[in-house]
DNA sequence: AATTGTGAAACACTTCACAGCC
DNA sequence: GGCTGTGAAGTGTTTCACAATT
């Protein structure tokens, strides 16, 4: 019903997950699906699923459920699965290397197209077919390869400096793997993944539960 | 004031971050710090910081702020930074490899002590001084190396099976990097990091913001 | 004078429960 | 009869605003 209402952050984070599970059901040849069935598979409360879907209008039919193909094409469109997104990777250390090799193969709509590392020669080199340039050429090559957003896997020292350069270039977003709390302009989207924080929080939970 | 009250999940996730920033201030030789100063550095509302700290009792002094050394030792104790935590890594593909090499160096209290991979020989091999065994020896070696929790970086196919074995062994927690939504017993703590989901959500935000 | 610790308000998110439609 | 879509209630989290304290 509300096409232009604000989608809650929590819902946004679940969208890719919905898409993945709907794909699975489609692959199994399922025609229709209820919020209860999705709930069992995803372990998300069925009311939450219905609420999430309802932000995008009436996707289902009362007394029936959801048409799998409908959902699939709706989410594909919504998550822009048709149009590939080009990603730049900044910092090819251990983690950066792993991400290049992983290269989000499962998602054919996102690709790391270019990488930067201070140890790379100016004229460039390659890992797994991905060109790697010296960071001096960031502005030039980011543009040239048509990157829309950057994955930041540099050292803490370089993180804010790189973020500043990215924001000057009007990069649209950063997926930040460094532990630094970056300052970026409003217009730039930022998502943080802090591996140590997650591990520490898990350890805290383990140590402070009764059992 | 409340020592045995329940700490909110949201607060728990911020604890490791607090510890890191307090360490920084201590290293700079700072003696006292206010919630406002921490707020500026961490970009967390000062009231949130005071509320978080208050769950652990009165750590500060009105009109003064917090004593840096006090905070530091309090958080070190609370996050068990004195006692090292031994971690097992299951699945040494691209990501697992990166995590072994990274090995959370910054946090000298957590160490990957043993790893498992189906391509490793039964008698074991090594990467960066970390022993790697065939998964057939998971139960045996998990125990032998005194692991308390596991990082799961296996394929989606193997994920739930490994989680089941870990739960049978009474592993205390799993840091799950696979996209699978694992089913584990109540007693086991689970933390999910799904790289594709984060990237997809970021792209969704970029594509659906007005600018 | 400065800054905490915390009731209370505000906001965000989840879940209940059921009217309405297929 | 089954299942959605959603008001309303419930739960969790953040922020305001200020009395209490050093």
Describe the structure.
2 copies of one chain form a homodimer. Chain A has 211 residues and is an alpha/beta fold. Chain A is 42% helix and 17% strand. The first copy, chain A, contains 8 helices and 9 strands. Chain A has helices at residues 9-27, 35-42, 46-54, 68-78, 94-102, 138-144, 156-168, 195-207; strands at residues 32-33, 66-67, 85-90, 110-116, 125-127, 130-133, 149-152, 173-176, 189-192. In chain A, strands 5-6-4-3-7-8-9 form a 7-stranded mixed beta sheet. Chain A has a two-stranded antiparallel sheet with strand order 1-2. Chains A and B meet through helix 1, helix 5 and helix 8 of A and helix 1, helix 5 and helix 8 of B. Chain A binds a DNA duplex (22 and 22 nucleotides) through residues 1, 8-11, 34-36, 45-48, 50-51, 53-54, 58-66.
Write the layout of secondary structure elements.
2 copies of one chain form a homodimer.
Chain A: H1 9-27, E1 32-33, H2 35-42, H3 46-54, E2 66-67, H4 68-78, E3 85-90, H5 94-102, E4 110-116, E5 125-127, E6 130-133, H6 138-144, E7 149-152, H7 156-168, E8 173-176, E9 189-192, H8 195-207
Parallel strand pairs in A: 3-4, 3-7, 4-6, 7-8, 8-9
Antiparallel strand pairs in A: 1-2, 5-6
Helix pairs in contact in A: 1-4, 2-3
The structure holds a DNA duplex (22 and 22 nucleotides).
Label this structure with key terms.
homodimer, 211 residues, alpha/beta, 7-stranded mixed beta sheet, two-stranded antiparallel sheet, 8 helices, DNA-binding
